[in-house]
Amino acid sequence: MRPSQKFNLHPSTHSAKDLETKTFDVICIGSGWAGRQLAAQVCKAGFTALVVEKELFGGDCPFWACVPSKVLLRSQDALDAANAVGGAKERILDAKVDANGVFARRDVITANKDDTQLLVPMTEATGATLVRGQAKLADVKNVQIAPFEGEPVEVEARLAVAICSGSEAVIPDGVKAADPWTPRDATSADYVPEKLIIMGAGAVGCEMATAYAGFGSKVTLISSSGSLLPSIDSEAGTIVRKSLEERGVVVKLATKVTKATRTDYGVEAVLSTGEKLSASELLVASGRKATLDFGLEKLGLSSHGTHIPVNESLCVKTFDGNDWLYAVGDVNGKAPFTHSASRIAGNAIIAKARGQTPSNITLTLGDRKAIPQVTFTSPIVASVGLTRKAAATKGIQVRQITAPAKTIGGILHSDTIADGWAQWLVDEEERLVGATIVGTDAADLIHASTVAIVGGMKLEQMVHAVPCFPTMSEVYLGLLEAAGY
Ligand SMILES: Cc1cc2nc3c(=O)[nH]c(=O)nc-3n(C[C@H](O)[C@H](O)[C@H](O)COP(=O)(O)OP(=O)(O)OC[C@H]3O[C@@H](n4cnc5c(N)ncnc54)[C@H](O)[C@@H]3O)c2cc1C
Ligand SMILES: NC(=O)c1ccc[n+]([C@@H]2O[C@H](COP(=O)([O-])OP(=O)(O)OC[C@H]3O[C@@H](n4cnc5c(N)ncnc54)[C@H](O)[C@@H]3O)[C@@H](O)[C@H]2O)c1
């Protein structure tokens, strides 16, 4: 069995047959960040919530996605940081990470995929009731739970049912015969493949290329897109490509993996160029689709493609008069990040139950005006609001301001700090509408831009926000200067 599939479902605990009541204010199908946060929010407001989970309480993020992937990246990062400072680097005996040590640290942080260690008690502490089993929509506000043992049980929601079922990796038919690694396998692995082909250069592909190159794999990163991280403006992908190539990664863009098979050695991949490559493993990181195995069709609904369409309150759009069925998190395809499973649906459900209008936080978050994203490559790529591409698609006229993401603070911090790249996009009134930062500390630096975009700030106001010396926040001085302020 693959390491990604080794976990205990604890089938005899949290059984639907033991429920003291069958009626809850809100029922969440799925216990990822989306389901748990919504349940916690409504419980805090004095309502009751049931969370149904078919796999591990906690969903993807703590066991297979954000958390283990960040652990796989952290050790090389720490070594690189020490290696970039004279006086410290002389003490480093080996600049390569110990992959087994990294895997062991990951297993501790992910509690060996045992949800009873942290996620179950943490979620119960919010006041939510938890049940293990597969949930299906049975009727309006009715959900059927098929437990791991015993007969199905029906539960009813007084206010709302929220589909928080997440997403799963898309494995194209042409490569299935290779029995490829999914992102779950890449984050759960307990060995380092000698040669690794990664298909897809989005966030998963680029992060895993960084991690496995650090472990010593010979990585080939192949993507149908013309640049790495295609959802961000292309300068970011160019910088990440250069860094990956310096780490020995071979990058092939505008190229598809069309077919792959298992061989005695591992896998053979056929590319759209006709080239054939062999490797120990193939990681497919070519996108995700919503998890839709909960019986939408039972209500005469279809999911309209790969995600469930929702309105600005995250209420499902697919049928008239719906005011009780919500889709929250990856399943709605709006912004597939842990942090974007925001309080939108909870606000709407609570306000409606109290006969109030939802606060305008719903709208700010709902239109994705300022949802940030960080890709933990080396250097890190952070972005919020509009990219140039997104502005053009929306027909929004923007002025581009760029500056190096390199400051005196950064130079004092690291002898090898690279120039990096920072971009602000401002609208015709000089209001900030987008920011991208590629470089040291970008993950945290971006938050200042998020706040400015949410606050509708103009450059003439931002000029008053003076960063401390000597810090990386001086990137913002560089941007203001480049903007002519
Ligand atoms: C490798 C990787 C790294 C990532 N890194 C980051 C990162 O650094 N930062 C970030 O913000 N995002 C990251 N993401 C994205 C992030 O993991 C997702 O956006 C987030 O986990 C989605 O949360 P969710 O609650 O919508 O879904 P999930 O976490 O997928 O939870 C859905 C849950 O619903 C359950 N479920 C589904 N159907 C049913 C049913 N019928 N009955 C009962 N239960 C059901 C599933 O078992 C699952 O537990 C990463 C993704 C990947 C793949
Ligand atoms: N740090 C983070 O926040 C983080 C990290 C990892 C994942 N995620 C989330 O997970 C989601 C999924 O990430 P992902 O990287 O799997 O998908 P993605 O959609 O971001 O990127 C898919 C990539 O695969 C390429 N591709 C598609 N078909 C191909 C083929 N046949 N051959 C070669 N290349 C092909 C595409 O051109 C693209 O570059 C993202 O939307 C992201 O939100 C976030």
Automatic annotation (TrEMBL):
Disulphide bonds in the chain: C61-C66
Keyword annotations from UniProtKB, A to Z: FAD, Flavoprotein, NAD, Nucleotide-binding
Record has Nucleotide-binding as a keyword: yes
Pfam families the UniProt entry points to: Pyr_redox_2, Pyr_redox_dim
Protein name as catalogued: FAD/NAD(P)-binding domain-containing protein
Cofactor notes: Binds 1 FAD per subunit.
Gene Ontology molecular function: dihydrolipoyl dehydrogenase (NADH) activity; flavin adenine dinucleotide binding
